[in-house]
Structures are given as C-alpha cells and as structure tokens.
Design a protein that fits this description.
This protein is mainly α and 168 residues long. Helices cover 48% and strands 10% of the residues. It has a two-stranded antiparallel ribbon with strand order 1-2. The radius of gyration is 50 Å and the shape is elongated.
Amino acid sequence: MENTVNFDHITRPLSDDEAKAEAERIIARSYYRPQTPPVRHMPTAFRDDTPLPAYGDTPPVPQDDKRIVPAWAAGIAVASIGVGTGSVGLGCCAWLILHGLASVTLNSVLIVTLPVAAFAMAVTAIGGAISKARSPVTVYKAPVTQNTQINNTSNQRGMFSRTRNDVR
C-alpha cells in the first residue's frame, strides 16, 4: 500500500467542518497521547572507526604550540593593565573625596580638623618650652635705668599707608 498525502488543504481554504476536524486532530495529537520526550534526542558526537586508506588524505597530527610573545607586546600588556588599575584607583579616590565634600557638615569639618589642630597645638607648646629653656636668665644686682625713645614715622599715599615705629 502506497502512502499518499493529501495536499488539497494547501490549495483551497478549509470548510468549517474540515477546520474543526483538523483542530481536534491537532489537539488530540498534542494533549491526549502518551507522554513522549518533547525533544528528539540526537547524538552530539560521531566517531568513524573505519580504517584509514593506505594513500590519500592523512589524519590530523597534533602540533606543539610554539608561539612566542615579543617583549614589546608583553610590556604594552603589563603597562596597559597598570594604567587601567591606576585610573580605576584615581577614579575611586576622586569619588570618595567628592562624595565626602558633598556631605560636609559642621561635625565632619570639626572631626577632620581636630587632629590637625591638636598637632599644631602640640608643636606650638613644644616650641614654646624649647624657647623658654634656651633663653638666658639674667639677674641684675644694681639699679637699672631705662630710657625709652619712640620715633613714629607715618607715610600715607593713596590707598596704602605705612607706619614705622622705632622704639629704643
């Protein structure tokens, strides 16, 4: 018996009864038959075990990888990695600084300047103590007379003025 395929539905539109019968056939084939795998399993690899001919094409031969990277190319690669890392670091640093400056409050300014002020105060105290220790102490045992003469010269021209006081 020979299989014949009916191509009439391709050349002419289906009647209502034929369309209903075709829809029922498709639904029955899709939903009411025993479960089969939705994907047809096919082999993903193939091995040909036939012997090779004595002449003709030869099989592939493994070849060692002997590529050598020039020193300038390796240097450029390392330099580009360094530049990229450095630019990312600078970008993060700039972001942190700008983020901090964007949220400036009185407390944050005081907290940031507190160590600087403490260091300056310690340096001033140490400098004062050293200068006091170095200054000689003179003890006078005779009467002291002090003559003070003040020369005041004032010079004013235009917007700027200058005053010089000479105390002797």
